[in-house]
Specification:
By secondary structure, this protein is α+β, with helices and mostly antiparallel strands. The chain has one domain: Kinesin, CATH 3.40.850. The protein contains ten helices and 16 strands. It has helices at residues 2-7, 9-18, 58-62, 116-132, 149-166, 216-228, 282-310, 323-327, 329-332, 355-368, and strands spanning 47-53, 69-71, 81-89, 98-106, 108-110, 136-143, 170-179, 182-185, 191-197, 203-206, 211-213, 232-233, 241-242, 245-253, 260-267, 340-348. Strand 3 and strand 4 (98-106) form a beta hairpin. The longest helix is centred in the last third of the chain and has 29 residues, at 282-310. It is globular and about 70 Å long. The protein binds adenosine-5'-triphosphate (ATP). ATP binds at residues 143-150.
């Protein structure tokens, strides 16, 4: 596919240049227009979905792949923002490749010019306020490998800590890495820990040390120390690819009222498709398989949780099938009665080389928007 895209990069660009972004969906080369995808439900005040499109990096540009992801200009009056994705296909009965676009609508879209502070102010601050009020807040970033998840979540963690300290909260942080179903404490020399449900059904990180954060600099130092213990390996797509999920949990206590909230900030391992793993050795392949299994359980939980929101029948959400979803139980459990706000930031690498993965990421982001 890469060779096909590279060979037709100039043709692709001529199609992209002809796109009229005011149309609901751009279609060229005699393709019949399709109805625009059903907009995601943005009415749930406890769930926000954002998409962050990282810039094309020097390496992306040097590799010759054009940009495939085009956010439309921000419309402050609209409930949802629009992204167009342009792809190119071979058609057996046509002399030239076919250009095909899809339109995706999401609550919050951050283009390549947006800073992490913009993401924080628009979607994460509310979550932090909620945790400071004694509730549960969860942020997770997901997307294909090298889409900017770690870049985004690392900076958001620091902004959240600074904001919580400004709110005079007492903070205790735990940072855990999940390689498949095995959990390690990143603030205790990668000691292995256990993930268990207690009698009340709450998931506990047994053996993980909670470190108090006393000021911003010490908080940043702790978070950076945790990141330095994270497993990373060079891959075809990312010279410093995180090979695991990373969960940063901040316990937020208000000394005046004794309320206790939790903020979870989760950097998911990158999803990798067959093309991304052609140069993986056996160890990287094993990690990829394990990560893909837990991401797949996560997707099942997302799908089933969305179904549970609309079905009158009891729907099974397979929360216990992976350690990751056990830790995120409060997000997916339809029986959960503690108020929980969730923010998902789907990350995209805009290169045409990754367009199939980007489409998947956007589809799941739209599905998440339907969780009620
Ligand atoms: N918004 C951004 N602005 C500038 N550079 C970015 C941005 N987002 C990501 N990058 C760069 O893109 C590259 C990949 O980002 P990152 O490592 O965060 O991806 P990832 O999704 O966590 O990948 P993996 O799943 O493989 O760990 C890094 O070099 C990072 O610095």
């Amino acid at each position: 596919m890469d060779q096909f895209y590279l060979k037709n990069a100039a043709l692709y660009q001529t199609y992209v240049d002809k796109v009229d972004p005011t149309k609901p969906q751009a279609h060229f080369m005699n393709l019949a227009p399709r109805p625009t995808k059903e907009a995601a439900d943005s009415s749930n005040p406890n769930m926000s979905i954002g998409v962050r499109i990282r810039p094309m990096l020097a390496d992306d540009i040097a590799s010759g792949f054009p940009c495939a992801v085009y956010p439309r200009p921000h419309d402050p009056t609209a409930k949802q923002q629009t992204i167009d994705l342009h792809d190119l296909y071979n058609h057996p009965r046509r002399p030239r490749p076919i250009f095909k676009s899809s339109t995706h609508k999401l609550q919050h879209v951050f283009d390549a010019s947006a800073s992490t502070s913009d993401v924080y102010n628009e979607v994460v601050r509310d979550l932090v306020v909620s945790a400071a009020d004694g509730k549960l807040g969860t942020l997770f970033t997901y997307g294909q490998t090298s889409s900017g998840k770690t870049f985004t979540v690392t900076e958001l963690q620091k902004l959240a800590v600074a904001d919580l300290l400004d709110r005079h909260a007492e903070l205790h942080v735990t940072v855990v890495e999940l390689a498949g179903n095995v959990a390690f404490d990143l603030l205790n020399q990668r000691e292995r820990i256990a993930v268990r449900e207690d009698a009340s059904g709450t998931t506990q990180l047994v053996g993980a040390i909670q470190h108090q954060i006393t000021d911003k600099d010490q908080g940043i130092e702790l978070l950076e120390r945790a990141m330095s213990f994270r497993r990373a390996a060079p891959t075809l797509k990312n010279p410093a690819s995180s090979r695991s999920h990373c969960i940063c949990r901040i316990k937020v206590t208000q000394p005046a009222t004794h309320t206790q909230g939790f903020l979870y900030m989760v950097d998911l391992a990158g999803s990798e498709i067959a093309r991304d793993v052609t140069e993986h050795g056996p160890e990287l392949m094993r990690e990829t398989r394990e990560n893909n299994v837990s991401l797949s359980v996560l997707k099942d939980c997302i799908r089933q949780r969305a179904l549970a929101a609309t079905s009158k029948k009891k729907v099974h959400v397979p929360i216990r099938e992976s350690t990751l979803t056990k830790i995120l139980k409060h997000v997916f459990d339809p029986e959960e009665n503690q108020e929980c706000k969730t923010v998902v930031v789907a990350c995209l690498n805009p290169s045409l080389a990754d367009v199939a993965s980007s489409k998947n990421t956007l589809r799941y982001a739209e599905l998440l928007g339907k969780m009620d």
